[in-house]
Automatic annotation (TrEMBL):
Protein name per Swiss-Prot or TrEMBL: LacI family transcriptional regulator
Domain of life: Bacteria
Domain Periplasmic binding protein: 31-283
This protein's UniProt keywords: Signal
One GO-annotated biological process of the protein: transmembrane transport
Location of the protein in the cell: Cell envelope
PANTHER family: D-ALLOSE-BINDING PERIPLASMIC PROTEIN-RELATED
Gene3D superfamilies for the chain: 3.40.50.2300
GO terms for cellular component: cell envelope
Stored InterPro entries: Peripla_BP_I (IPR028082), SBP_2_dom (IPR025997)
Length: 308
């Protein structure tokens, strides 16, 4: 995407506090990122990626908020940002239903709204930048079906309930596996968090359950799963496992023979920042942009740079 040279910008990066602080020199624009949960490594990287773009421009004040994994708090942040008359809103709504109305309100108040990764239930936004989650789920199913030769029990570690990536990663996977009668699927919710995956897999294995493969909606959850597996004397290299994001830990695990595959899932934070600059300059930006993910295995892991 092209950069906008019409407007000089300077970054004033806030902490995760709500208030937009005044700078010594008034900014031309205020761009706010209402994030879902900064305790999530991927979500934090998404904000930092956007920040990196704005650092090159002197007349924009960039602020961000931390919803701390709470839909109500994220919605409250957006309401406050609207009242503070920000010039553009970047957000990744925690849930479709919970955040849809406030996003509509922002858009109808004339604020450009850039959705990253997660969608809403209407078209009242400026642009939606996302990865192809359904196709990731489909390809993950095909990979594990082949690895198991059409027979086995797969544990699916799901992301945040109600978030569009979770819904689509599940749908793509299940729609393929429904055609495979030899495959049994069990699901547990890990909320995209390593610590949650550790807790649920500990409980799962302590109850005498077993699995022949893991499909994890994030590499962070899969990292947590590997930690628990080792405590139960299960070698992760003996079981087909697939994650999503392709972070550094996934690359290391692939090269060490401890993970079978991952799918690249860039944060699109840089692209979101570029979209904001384009819209603030009064230029047209596409309503939707979809990124195609790459499946990474040990064969190509050294050729593809992790997203962080």
């Amino acid at each position: 995407m092209k950069k906008i040279n019409k407007v000089l910008l300077a970054l004033v990066l806030s902490t995760a506090a709500m208030a937009i602080s005044a700078s010594e020199k008034a900014a031309t624009f205020v761009v706010a990122f209402a994030q879902d949960d900064l305790s999530n490594d991927w979500r934090l990287a998404q904000v930092k990626d956007a920040q990196g773009v704005f650092e090159a421009y002197p007349d924009v004040e960039f602020v961000y908020t931390d919803g701390q994994g709470q839909t109500a708090l994220q919605v409250a942040h957006i309401h406050q940002l609207i009242e503070q008359k920000i010039d553009a809103l970047i957000t990744s709504p925690r849930e479709i239903l919970g955040a849809s109305q406030v996003i509509r309100e922002a858009y109808e108040r004339g604020i450009p709204v850039i959705l990253l990764d997660r969608h809403v239930d209407h078209a009242a936004y400026s642009t939606f930048l996302h990865n192809d989650n359904y196709n990731i789920g489909l390809r993950a199913a095909q990979f594990l079906d082949s690895a198991l030769e059409g027979k086995g029990r797969i544990l699916m570690l799901e992301g945040l309930p109600g978030a569009t990536p979770t819904i689509l990663r599940r749908e793509g996977f299940i729609n393929f596996m429904e055609q495979r009668p030899g495959i049994e699927l069990v699901a547990r919710t890990g909320n995209y968090l390593r610590r949650d995956a550790i807790l649920i897999l500990e409980e799962f294995l302590s109850q005498g359950n077993h699995f022949d493969a893991i499909y994890s909606h994030s590499d962070s959850m899969l990292e947590g799963a590997r930690m628990v597996m080792k405590r139960y004397d299960i070698n992760p290299g003996d079981i087909p496992t697939v994650g999503i994001d392709y972070i550094q830990g996934a690359q290391d695990a692939l090269l060490a023979g401890q993970q079978s595959a991952s799918f690249t899932y860039p944060t699109l934070g840089e692209e979101g920042a570029e979209a904001a600059l384009t819209l603030l300059a009064g230029e047209i930006f596409p309503k939707t942009i979809m990124n195609e993910s790459i499946m990474v295995t040990v064969e190509n892991a050294t050729e593809i740079v992790p997203i962080f």
